[in-house]
């Protein structure tokens, strides 16, 4: 069975197969770059993102304006992340205590 019937047909087939087979047009719902700048808007929450290319290792801060990808090695990022985790754990402990004592 012959796939191409001339040079133009072969070129067209090649272009169609390679254009649809690449991951270049995939949408990645992660941080692919980070900021070192301190966040000035109120922070609602945070989560860690592991490196899994094209995603980079980052702390993702959730703010009232949306999500901000921050560099995980920045001192202020680590400090803020730890504060948020401690507050979250404290709130979970209070909720558990309230639920069990009622």
Features of the shown structure:
single chain; 102 residues; elongated
Please tell me about this protein's structure.
The structure is a single chain. The chain is of the alpha+beta class and 102 residues long. It has helices at 7-21, 75-101; strands at residues 43-49, 58-63, 66-70. The chain has a 3-stranded antiparallel β-sheet, with helices on one face. Strand 1 and strand 2 form a beta hairpin. The protein starts with 6 loop residues before the first helix and ends with a helix.
Q: In which range does the helix fraction lie?
A: 40-55%
Give me the oligomer status. Answer: single chain
CA(first)-CA(last) distance:
76 Å
Q: What is the topology, as strand order, of the major beta sheet?
A: 1-2-3
Strand content: 15-25%
Characterize the largest beta sheet: strand count, sense, and whether it forms a barrel.
3 strands, antiparallel
Shape: elongated
How do the SSEs run, as a string of H and E?
Answer: HEEEH
- The tally of helices reads 2
For the secondary structure, the number of strands is 3
The stretches of 5 or more residues where confidence is low (pLDDT under 50) are 10-26
> What would you report as the Rg, rounded to the nearest angstrom?
24 Å
Structural class call reads alpha+beta
**Roughly what is the average pLDDT, rounded to an integer?**
80
């Amino acid at each position: 069975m012959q796939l191409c019937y001339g040079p133009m047909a072969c070129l067209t087939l090649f272009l169609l197969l390679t254009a649809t087979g690449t991951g270049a047009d995939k949408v990645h719902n992660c941080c692919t770059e980070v900021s070192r700048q301190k966040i000035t808007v109120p922070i609602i929450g945070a989560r860690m993102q592991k490196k899994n290319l094209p995603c980079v290792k980052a702390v993702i801060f959730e703010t009232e304006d949306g999500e901000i990808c921050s560099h995980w090695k920045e001192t202020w990022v680590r400090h803020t992340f730890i504060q948020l985790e401690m507050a979250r754990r404290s709130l979970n402990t209070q909720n558990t205590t309230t639920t069990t004592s009622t």
